[in-house]
Amino acid sequence: MNKKKIIKFLSEIQMLKRVRREGVKLAGVKIPDSVAEHIAISTQIAYLLAKLEGADASKCVLMSLFHDNEEARIGDPHKISVRYFNVKNAERKAMEEHLSNLPKQIREEILKLQKEMRERNTKEGIIVKDADWLEIAIQAKIYSELGYKGCENWIDNVEKALETKTAKEILAEIRKNPDFLNFWWKGLKKMTYKKLKKK
Amino acid sequence: MNKKKIIKFLSEIQMLKRVRREGVKLAGVKIPDSVAEHIAISTQIAYLLAKLEGADASKCVLMSLFHDNEEARIGDPHKISVRYFNVKNAERKAMEEHLSNLPKQIREEILKLQKEMRERNTKEGIIVKDADWLEIAIQAKIYSELGYKGCENWIDNVEKALETKTAKEILAEIRKNPDFLNFWWKGLKKMTYKKLKKK
Amino acid sequence: MNKKKIIKFLSEIQMLKRVRREGVKLAGVKIPDSVAEHIAISTQIAYLLAKLEGADASKCVLMSLFHDNEEARIGDPHKISVRYFNVKNAERKAMEEHLSNLPKQIREEILKLQKEMRERNTKEGIIVKDADWLEIAIQAKIYSELGYKGCENWIDNVEKALETKTAKEILAEIRKNPDFLNFWWKGLKKMTYKKLKKK
Amino acid sequence: MNKKKIIKFLSEIQMLKRVRREGVKLAGVKIPDSVAEHIAISTQIAYLLAKLEGADASKCVLMSLFHDNEEARIGDPHKISVRYFNVKNAERKAMEEHLSNLPKQIREEILKLQKEMRERNTKEGIIVKDADWLEIAIQAKIYSELGYKGCENWIDNVEKALETKTAKEILAEIRKNPDFLNFWWKGLKKMTYKKLKKK
Amino acid sequence: MNKKKIIKFLSEIQMLKRVRREGVKLAGVKIPDSVAEHIAISTQIAYLLAKLEGADASKCVLMSLFHDNEEARIGDPHKISVRYFNVKNAERKAMEEHLSNLPKQIREEILKLQKEMRERNTKEGIIVKDADWLEIAIQAKIYSELGYKGCENWIDNVEKALETKTAKEILAEIRKNPDFLNFWWKGLKKMTYKKLKKK
Amino acid sequence: MNKKKIIKFLSEIQMLKRVRREGVKLAGVKIPDSVAEHIAISTQIAYLLAKLEGADASKCVLMSLFHDNEEARIGDPHKISVRYFNVKNAERKAMEEHLSNLPKQIREEILKLQKEMRERNTKEGIIVKDADWLEIAIQAKIYSELGYKGCENWIDNVEKALETKTAKEILAEIRKNPDFLNFWWKGLKKMTYKKLKKK
Description:
Six copies of one chain form a homohexamer.
Chain A: H1 3-14, H2 35-53, H3 57-65, H4 71-74, H5 87-99, H6 104-119, H7 123-145, H8 152-161, H9 165-176
Helix pairs in contact in A: 2-3, 2-7, 3-6, 3-7, 6-7, 7-8, 7-9
């Protein structure tokens, strides 16, 4: 391996912790999630959707894992900014240059998977895109519950775009839930605040 | 006035507090300054440079005051991202649409000043651009003193680009100062920690 | 120019990014806007009000641009703290010492404008004060929409104090708007989430 | 008890978590400690100094516990700001009004202790003031080790003002330590990163 | 005194500013209060409860002042995590090792008080535990008012656990108040926004 | 699928954005990375190591993707806290309960992979653990370059524990690099600060 190039790549992916999801700033969020956080959670969702849809989960996970890496170089352009930029081309070129620090075989595998996700011409491509969008909608639901009402807009847009039955059903179920943010831990607390025995 | 459009404009410029200067994230800064902060300080610098260079200070201030407003729409693209985007065109189009909420006469005045700054074909255009860059270099000097050594790169680049004698001299003076961050307040503290009289 | 003094001044105005608007902490805001952010946006508003009121916009902008610079030295005293301090005197003295690093002619121009703003004995003085207050009310409206209900109090107080017809109309229009925070970008998003053509 | 007044007092002391130690912003710290954090640690130090100096520890702790409560009302004025304000009077008046929500007997006990700390006319008054300053110097030492070199100034000033032998010796010992921040946990880690047994 | 050990202890208690109250993250709070902040305010509450309940206030304050110090070592385990850990034992052992840097007499005094608080077999032990819980409920009330509705759960749990009449009455009074966060400062503002005399 | 359980799981994994890597707080970091950020980057590293070591990359990625999910429930216990807790057992139990919301087949796949990582009895188990540690060392290197010198300790500990040749070589190369943080972007900037053509 070319050690210099490998550590250049490793230096660059740390940048994904410093780039933030710009879109929700429109709705008033001051310090949004990082791109790295979005990658982690959307990739877990991609795995889950693949399993539930009977697709190739390993492939979906690989496809999702690097899907926003070019944002280390171009930031996270939101849906207003794309009025003014040709974002698609920029993303592709930035991804290619970003991956140029990796050995050819690895780079080509990742690029091929990215293309599949972009074109959504396979079941896995469709699933991974749905996972990407579902993560965005889920985070928006939480912000919305916390009072950022502009975030409802993200959920509406994702709802219209989803393709898989599973993703649609999950989003519908989440929307119905008035307290999704706190849903998971209700009933799990082991109470240590206790009344005295005799008083 | 068209009240709806005016308050749309006012809603939008609040966004300048939520958009952050992306460049220094490259050097490890997690939560950089906002664009609004940069506007305030670089405009004060533009006033000062104009006065010291014997130029039209009122004009410089007006020119500087709106110079990054389009970033409410396109974010703050840093010097890596411009490898992949045609930023100049995007900036111009976003600025035009941003200002479309203002009455024609106001909008045209601002656009004319922006053009002058972009083309630097007048003394004032040159000064305001220098003020913009000088603010970036000054902030980078402070980050550098706090341990973000990658920020030296910003100062080097600004140093090469400055045009006015005053801006060059100021930056040279700042670079020579090993503790610029704390320079202003040394000697100003009124000490209230006092020894007891008799002990 | 006295280079040492000029860079002292430049070191000091960076402090305006670190001083925060203390008032809204009363209402529960943990990390409020910086003074520099307030300066940038209120100065843009001063320009706009001046144009709409047919006043001298250049003068208003200059007047507004330095109007809180003394807060680098005294912080941002809120409306509870002024029960206990003679803030007016402190502001004046701190501003004078702050400006003492600038050449006499510049310093005197700024001080003269500050006096005009304080005394509001000219159209421009009245407009710039209105712009200052309007910015505070606008930010408070956004916080209020995000759930900081105590911020309504700032809007009420500004409403009572405004002098110009334009500022009053603008604030009335903003108060009527139930989603002012998100008002500017509704309808502007270019949707990139798209259904597949044939499926 | 007057329940309304008691819960007003409880509402107010939560504000101490939102007011921050303004001084170190001079040295470049963007989001300093809260006043509540300073109260907790300086009171623990007051207890320790009292024990080591053979003074009344209970009294010292009570004296220290409320010593900055007025900052809920007046903020935390730093050593530049006191050039422009009569801080001492403001502190006293704000403290009195702050405590006016408490029953008379309680209020008077606290005020009496505050006076003792201010006048330092008892052993305990001297110790608690030393604890207050020592906490400031300790925090400054940590910031200094992290690259905020302007913070050395706080340590110098505290060093000159301390009265008790114990506080002086402690500060001298801390200054000698080149890595005070990490001093406590070196050697305590239980390593769970382990080589495989046979490889 | 053993200076090395004393400054180790002082280095460690600064950590209490960096450890945060983990529980409310469940309810969506991104950056909760620090443990040091909780210590300061709950100790002030302990003093107040003691006075109102006619107990030994000095003892209560000492008991409260160190009650979470072991969290420098073990963090702040929330009520889900205690399903999986034996937190009680960990707390005790960590507290003992934490205090081992202090002279024996001091260490034993603190440990004895901690035991009393844990066992709640004295009036003071009961009061200090109530103060600890009351502070948690008060902070939760504020978060709840700001839109973190999951925080209601903390208030419910504290309500069930409180023992003293005073603490119960105070919490009931706070719950009834629809705007507890802003309760203290309403009516205190000295308005400096003023209409012009003649217009 | 059981929709309620699936969305409970999805609600829970959002918590991974709110739980932070506690360890580096020892070294003075105030707001460390989130667990989600660590998962994203360490999983990308796991993929890379697997490729470079000729192992099953898909398996490594799956194994890494969920490796810290139990921290939604137990937080991120650092190396001081494990002196006091039986963390291994807690992790296992929390992971099991966390996964209980997923269908049996999925849950068992993940648990089997976790076991392999824990026991490191396969090439992939060893690689994924190395990737986990390498990510920690890389982040520590960056903090160390920014002045958090206590973070060197993490790098030393990881260095001793790594098993694969590739991971060891990469870490050695990174340690040699005096400016790893900024390494990736040096030379990539497209300069837009330009001198005027003729002047």
